[in-house]
Amino acid sequence: MSILRKGGSDIVFASRDATAVNDPEDVEWVVNAPSSLRRCGGQGDILCGASAAFLARSSCSPACCVAAACTLTRSSAVRAFAELGRSSTASDMLHYVPKVMLDMFPSA
């Protein structure tokens, strides 16, 4: 089971057993990648789609895939905001997804 809490820092919590308390194998990832000053509607949709894509195409853990999707979404938002300011939308962010992917995974 993996849970994502979006916020100033995105936190991904992963547990192999949802009923266990303080399991030493539980994992918590904190994503502190810069994000834009504008949080617009639709960013969650991009995050969800990126998470699904990483889960489908990667052999990494679900928590790792969600953390990568958080970084991708945040970085795309930063680039859209840098160009368009407060008028940037989720649709504008999509333009930057391929470029951010190349930055994150240059050998892919």
Concise overview:
The chain has four helices and three strands; from the N terminus they run βββαααα. By secondary structure, it is an alpha+beta fold.
> Strands across the major sheet, in which order?
1-2-3
Helical percent range? 40-55%
Gap between N and C termini, in Å? 28 Å
| Percent in strands | 5-15%
| Mean pLDDT level | 89
User: How many strands, which pairing sense, and closed or not: the largest β-sheet?
Assistant: 3 strands, antiparallel
- Uncertain segments: none
Helices and strands: which structural class? Answer: alpha+beta
> What is the strand tally?
3
Inertia-based shape: globular
How many individual helices?
4
Tell me about this structure.
By secondary structure, the protein is an alpha+beta fold. The chain contains four helices and three strands; from the N terminus they run E-E-E-H-H-H-H. It has a three-stranded antiparallel sheet, covered by helices on one side. The protein is globular, with a radius of gyration of 15 Å.
What key phrases describe this protein's structure?
alpha+beta; 3-stranded antiparallel beta sheet
How is the secondary structure organized here?
Elements: E1 2-5, E2 10-14, E3 27-31, H1 43-57, H2 62-84, H3 90-94, H4 97-104
Antiparallel strand pairs: 1-2, 2-3
